[in-house]
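>> received
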Amino acid sequence: MRPIKEVGLSHVLLDLENYRIPDSQASQDDALRYLFESENVLELVEKIAHDGYLDNELPLVVRAETEGGETGEFIVLEGNRRVAALKALSGLATPDGCKKQLNKVRKKYAHELKNLPTKIRVMVMESRESALPHLGRMHIGDSKRRWSRDQQATFYYSMLDKNTNVGDLRVRFPNQPGLNRLLKMASVRRFISHAKFTDGSLRAYAASADLTMSSFEYAYRSKDIADAVGISFNDDGLIEPSPEREGAELDGQKLGALELLLTKFRSNELNTRSAALKKGTPEYVELIRELEGKSETADGQTPRPDEGSTEKKEEQQSSYPGGANTPSNEEMRGDDQQGNNSEESSSRSRNDPRTYRHLNMKSVENLYRDDKVRVNIQILFVELQKINVSDLPVASAMLMRAVLEATVKWTLTDQEQDNRNQLKQLFKVVQDKANSENWRCRSNVNNIASADVSTPGSITWFNIIAHNFDFRPAGEMLHQAWSLVCPVIEHMLKTSLDGTP
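>> returned
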């Protein structure tokens, strides 16, 4: 019988190696923020505030000192969502972006929260190892909230060490026929989260729950795509010698290919229904050529005969307010990319999106052209689509900021705007909505609202360009900024046009 102990909330720590989290977190604040952003802890906060805290299911903990922590503290192995909710309600911790919602709940249930426990009962496990069978039974079966495929993958992968191999896992978990698939998921997550991306926001996306591995596996299960981005599995579904090392050492063409692939997933240009991920389709062939830097249009060659005549292509280019047309592939890339002759630039593929003269606005074209969108806002989008970000980076940044602000003001209700005029003030409203409504792009929203000047696309970055005349962004930064901003604009337009979050 394992001991049951009553412990003060302040002495109960969230697990930084929590299986719900795709990659281990650096601090308690990081873990708390992740759980609130990705595991809908706000819903649990309100439920506990309304119904009270029930301890019929005790959190499983391990003594922190067994893992090099402080004596008297305990790490939660099972029950992190409940503990996070209790800490937030008691005021011991407030995750970024949730202060307003938490204050509202505390005010609404002020009377009930007088009985909120400051101590909770926990079951103390001897070690992580001793807790594994219980965690697997609870979250990979149906008795509790089921872990996602990504979380199950992390669970199994974490058990591999010098004393436990894949064969041992198969013996221990005979009812898990998809073990190879799950180990591939966990390996790829670690591989991409350790790649040395030039775009900080892309690195954050690769390590977050916004990138679902059950969707991304539609790409890497293709050997052609896996080879193009530097992923190679052994027979057990593992990347050797380690996914972290292989990801960190990735460079050159393969790193550019991986960034391109992830950018397409983040903008939803690629998803589980994309023809480009189905082997044998023309779209698949073109995607492989893009990833390998061999795209015909990227090389400046004549389009293939099946792409139609010049006249037909001109007919296919859509007209916009003022007679503007979508930039062609040649205009997007340009013969000299961005005229950058640096060693770093010359090592990149011609198809690397960071070298394009124009922003890739394909994912929002049909949205901003909708008749419901005001013409003046459509014109802003058209101008941003046509502007050469290499030649006019400052103007491009100002135009992108105008597009973002126009989208926010058009999609928020008058009540939500509440006479707020500045983008920073308005975006706090967007941030609250994104976190409370669990938007898929909420990590982008949080970065735009809170990141510093080193993150292209953040409000601070836009402001420094507007007010510091010595700061001139490189064209590459504009593509990084757009990769952060575009998914948010796309979500807000879709939500406003469809009428659903």
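>> Residues 301-334+356-498 form one domain.
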